[in-house]
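Researcher: Structure prediction, please.
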Amino acid sequence: MQKEILTLDDIKLLVDSFYEKVRTDELLKDIFNEKIQDKWPQHLEKMYRFWQTILLEEHTYFGSPFAPHAQLPVAQEHFKRWLKLFYENIETQFTGAKAEEAKWRAEKMAEMFQYKIAYYKSTQITKP
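Model: Predicted structure follows.
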């Protein structure tokens, strides 16, 4: 049964179920597991705060989300898979305005990260 995203518990369900998929996905699991290693509890806690800030407007996340992603070995297919899993996760569990906003924001975030990573890589190549 689908539910609306209204509370921190809903955010935790969203984040936990999404990253369960990521951690077993053939294309994404190695990238995430190598970067995060044994710090999954800390990563999930940070993601709770991030999405709580964005979707519930309860400002608990402070930081720059791009910096930890700048040097990841990712390309467009990784972002497509990440978004596919995110959308599937939302659509099977959630409904309502916040669910739609979460999908929209994830898409914009993926788009921005792709551009920033491409820019970052291009500036690293041209440095002496």
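Model: The chain has a mean pLDDT of 89.
Researcher: Thanks, that helps.
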